[in-house]
Specification:
With 150 residues, this protein is an all-alpha fold. The chain has 8 helices and no strands.
């Protein structure tokens, strides 16, 4: 999720943060993790492009907000479903749930809807390029055994 958001929504090259993120892992195996970074960044050309919506993922995988409440203490008083989009809180709700008026969670770093549109255009635009299609075919021919080549 983190790599997907970094590379697609923020449009940051996966190379720029793989080392930093690797240092945060309890166990880091370059052969596994670097290839997973590439898959999530959509640079392998052979995997389906995945573009995750972090808000939707939070709602689906943490419907009670347990992870957010545990790891983001600043949001501990905010109930579900407001928890997943704190930037939509009214001024009254900010006071009521004791959130600091200057909280970073009241001002998202990006407009998710806009970044999703731009990411889709960029990612699917690359897949439409002839040089990318050619490379996909070369990779598949090199690594996939077809029924006719047994």
């Amino acid at each position: 999720m983190l790599v997907n958001f970094l590379t697609h929504h923020l449009n940051i090259d996966w190379h720029d943060d793989v080392t930093h993120l690797a240092q945060l892992f309890l166990y880091f195996y370059p052969a596994i993790h670097c290839s997973q970074f590439q898959v999530q960044a959509g640079v392998t050309s052979i995997n389906t492009i995945r573009l995750y919506n972090p808000t939707k993922q939070a709602k689906e995988h943490d419907p009670n907000g347990e992870f957010i409440h545990k790891w983001v203490p600043e949001l501990a008083n905010i109930p579900v479903p407001l928890l997943f989009e704190p930037w939509t809180l009214t001024e009254l709700e900010v006071v009521m749930y004791q959130l600091d008026n200057n909280s970073r969670y009241l001002s998202p770093i990006i407009d998710l809807a806009r970044s999703s549109i731009k990411a889709r255009e960029r990612l699917w635009g690359w897949l439409a390029r002839d040089d990318v299609k050619s490379e996909v075919n070369a990779i598949l021919n090199r690594h996939v055994r077809t029924k006719n080549t047994q």
